[in-house]
Amino acid sequence: MPNTVREAGGGRREAQRPRIAVAAGVLIRASGEVLIAQRPEGKIAAGQWEFPGGKIEPGESARDALVRELHEELGVTVREARPLIKVVHEYRERTVELDCWIGTAWDGEPQGREQQAFAWVTPERIEDYPILAADGPILTALRLPSHYVFTPPHADPDALIARLPALPRGALLRLRLPALGDDDYAACVRAMLAPARGLGLRVIVDRTPQMAVSLGADGWHATAAQLHALDARPALPWCFASAHGAAELDRARALGFDAAVLGTVRPSATHPGGAALGFDAAARLTQAANLPVYWIGGLQLDDLRDVQTQYAQGMAAIRAYWPD
Ligand SMILES: Nc1nc2c([nH]c(=O)n2[C@@H]2O[C@H](COP(=O)(O)OP(=O)(O)OP(=O)(O)O)[C@@H](O)[C@H]2O)c(=O)[nH]1
Ligand SMILES: [Mg+2]
What we know:
Nucleoside Triphosphate Pyrophosphohydrolase; globular; DNA damage; binds 8-OXO-guanosine-5'-triphosphate; DNA replication; 2 domains; TIM Barrel; 8-oxo-dGDP phosphatase activity; 8-oxo-dGTP diphosphatase; four-stranded mixed beta sheet
């Protein structure tokens, strides 16, 4: 069915746009390449690239729609999949709600059953293909790891360097170290960059974006207060922000931050007895955020699977990554 609406007087009110619920699947190979497909002639946005999938039928779950669509479009049967991210995007003619999953195991070799072209590409190279405008947060999610490691507040920098090999490969590493003066903090960042990068870790700096830029860090982490005070996203490869609720998640997205860290999900040793969001509220906020969201607060490594089932990007923590 064509997704067009009749328009009165040139403007298109949001209420007039049809909302389309879509399940999209990112099949990922062990090598890290993902499958993208070109939309065939005759469909809306023909010629553009996308993750295979299609409209969720009334009464159908997103996962069932995903399995059905990938079978119809590619001839594969998805066996293992987990939620990745939900994205709402307003095109001129329609509002699309993408329920995006990542598929890690499937039966059959993908074939273009609708005569569509497809390609296996690394997430870093997807922009070589004109991909649908709604998919930006999906690409960010695919380029980010599941683990965001925060340093303990009073850690000794040399001791931290010695323990880097025990961290999950590819993790983000936020250097907090609030007890250090700026010069000592900068020295610690400089000492950390090469060993961390050698292990595939990305070094994320606190304090100011200027400091992160001048130290050549991989990114900057904003506190919620800094987030409110900013008027533009700093020019760094990665920008993250702490968020406690919907207003801060909205702000992070509006500024073009890559991801937010939402908490406190459970009471933790850092915030004992503090008001915790709980999993249900954290899940609601995450699924409406339109950007990748890490959860923080009282989480252990074996919570990761449950956290990701709620569409979180992954977890952030101190103690879970630096056991005594
Ligand atoms: N599958 C898929 N759809 C996407 C992505 N991003 C995005 O904006 N969309 C939009 O979501 C909608 C998906 O609808 P579709 O045309 O694929 O639906 P379908 O497979 O059921 O097709 P049909 O209704 O022609 O049989 C389109 O409006 C498309 O532009 C994406 O990455 N994958
Ligand atoms: Mg489709």
